[in-house]
Predict the structure.
Amino acid sequence: MGRYLIRRTLFLILVLFIVSIITFVVFVKLPAQDPALRAAGRSPTPQLIATIREKFGLDRPLYVQYSRFARGLVPWPGLFLDEEVYFSYTNHVAVREEIYSRVPVSATLTFGAAVIWLAVGIPIGIVSAIKPRSLFDRAGMIFALIGVSAPVFWLGLLSLYVFWFKLGWLPGSGIPPDETIPQAVLAGRFILPWGVLALAFAAFYSRMVRGNLIETMSEDYIRTARAKGISENRVIFKHGLRASLTPVVTMLGLDLGILLGGAVITETVFNLPGLGQYAIRSLLNSDFPAIMGVTLFASFCIVVGNLLVDVAYAFLDPRVRYT
Amino acid sequence: MRGYLKVLAVVAVLALVGAACGGDDDGGGATGSTATGGTGGEITPGGTFKAAMLSDVTAGFDPQKEYYAVAWAFYRCCLARTLMSYDPNDPDSTHLVPDLAAAAPEISPDGLTWVFTIKDGITFGPPYEDVEITAQDFIRAFERMGTPEVAASYYFYYLDTESQGGVVGFSDFYNGDADSIEGLVAVDDKTLEIHLNRPAGDFGYRVAMPATAPIPEGASENHVDDYGRFLVSSGPYMFEGSEQITDDTPAPGYEPGKSITLVRNPSWDPATDEIRKAYVDQIDVAIGGTAEDNQNKVDAGELDVEYDGIPPAEAIRRYSTDPELQDRLFVNSSDGVRFLWMNLAVPPFDDVAVRRAVNYAIDRDGLRRLRGGETVGDIATHMIIPSLEAGALEGYDPFPSPNHAGDIDAAKLEMANSKYDTDGDGVCDAPECENVQFVTDEASPYAEQAALVQDNLEPLGITLDVKAFERSTMYNKYFNPKEHVPFGGGAGWFKDYADAYTFVYPLFYGPNILDAGNTNYPMLGADADQLDKYGYTEEFGVTEVPSIDEQAEACFALVVPEERTTCFAEVDRILSEEIAAYVPYLFDNDVTIISERTQNYVYSGFDSLMALDQVALANGGA
């Protein structure tokens, strides 16, 4: 297990290294706008652009330029997202400060929505699987189709219109500046975003659980279990579901990682100041240090999520052993 | 000469009015209120005014960097008083009035020395509440603006050059050839003397710009990049928690990209401020979200105004047609023009006949309709906004057509004179007219407008290769003269202050063609060296383009407002008719919808936005 974790951690570093190089090349060497120009303000003179190039090291060899950014990726105090380099060209705030202040919002949105989509998606998937072609199964299929087909931005605006504007049951978008995240949660400000974000995922997860469970229930070992006289519930939940949940865990790890890096549309529609909102703003402003920081943070979340998934396999699937 | 100088002294400052009128009540044809209004009744001070913005300000609230009307609106109303300013309640709200200056400046007979006396007893906001504002604090602001590392946005207005009246020594300071700006002299704590290299009729406006607002010693020195969050207020409001500001701790009241919270500045004394009413106790601004959601909040009374965008078309229709809602809709000229532009150094637009043909062919009304119709503004037939020309070109339309829908017959007559129409049939038959690159914004309505322009030009034999980009990418292409963009469709320009100089110098003046950040998109007035430097000579063989530099310089030097506006109007006429490098199509409007409880809506002509220092809430927001 220890060797496996070390190997996976090294792999994680390799992935982040590759992502950082790609991000660097795309946004610094092939940018929509010269980073020095972006930082030089509205009316730069050639002298000012030259000064900024020197200040940012943009006049240095490529590997030197990259190393400035790469240093900021080392997860060590003082180095990680170093303010000297990771400093927004647009609003002149340290990227680290922005990310740290926005992670709690994205995390609250992600984990809250995950609880809902698992609590809704898995039971629907199970019932649909054990009663295929039943009315419930067909209803579940319709739910899944709606959930997967409805665009999040449309669903978000619609839910705000209905539940906040028309019915007044739930708060509208945004978190007031004087409200902490726990206060916002208690005030119900996350209910609509959770619901909207969870719907699409719940639909997908229910279809996945249904398909996996139907397939698993036709396996030989399930027939054997039934032949041994084990109760149907035990067959389904202990033998069938456990095996069919393995891909769900895989997806969950990746989905959590992706969403922690920013649920761009949900955060925009519901005006939640999370990483997704920050990412989209940075992209629109060609704010390279912010793009680099948020991209790498999102990549970090995804690869860590993936690692945790692999570790979790050992507990779910006895066939998986770490070497 | 003497009489002339007398006129200069008397009128050049406060009566710069003549050049102005930016905040006029140009209703743009929509049903709705203009200029002032809101829920009636007694005004009771107090309450929290709630606003929303779709985007943050653009440079972290740094007064030297911000080149954005919304940021300027916050400075003017609330955070950064200047020597001169504007009273939104004045029917001509671009009329300059003394603000931190005790009176209008004394101007020397030669127009080169401006002496400002600063009001007594005004201190900065926390944490500098014990520091009185002095002449040196203004010099500090000018020096910060002239420090290249700060990357200030409009320092160029203060450069002393051969063609521009600026502050003596500002250019040397900017270029690192001097340690201080020679032309700024603190005679004593309360007297600031500004020396110009040559008379500048619009200099009064330039000392009303937010970048010239005073900065106390010690406040900005360690914040070359990020002074915005450490901003020390001189106005009626300040960022919440400003008293906590230290070198490392910004004011918590401004969370970039998230929110702005303004509270009363305890240092502000209404007795020293004849402009600002500051009725509300607090101004909360949420940043982000969508226009539709924000409008729903205004409808529901959860929000008082959406401050930085145009309300959704559905809301504009509803508020302009419902008698009960009409008094909450305000339509004002935002003193901007939207236009297409043609590069004079790229064929086929190096031929004036082609440019004139294009001007005739374009369906200006169609372009406006695609933006939302009459409410969004008046049809533009020339480039400089009418308020900066005192209406001198009212009714002027060098390329008339029925309902401004384009006149293809007239266009063909022009095209027949072109070297690119060899058989003279009014249709371009040269390869230069095929697949002309048209660079525009990918967002609505620009993509739809591009399709209309394609249709309009097809009968002339001009076919377009539309390249639509994300907005900042599009502007990066426009800003770079080496990109050789032939035809642009997504541009607009808004006044910086109430003088046509803010159009002519950045947009049309040859010496202002820059390597980067160039806003003279058509290369107007580029000399042979510039055309060679940017590759036009090599690629297209173009060595000469039209210029209005001579006429522009004559206008720059004028100081009598009436002469100045007349001069600039003539420049505009030459530009529109004889050079025809632009196809202006819209004089833009600002459209605002306020909440039911909002009182005393006043439009600020300086920034073309609702004046937050005048707004009040019904029953004090109780």
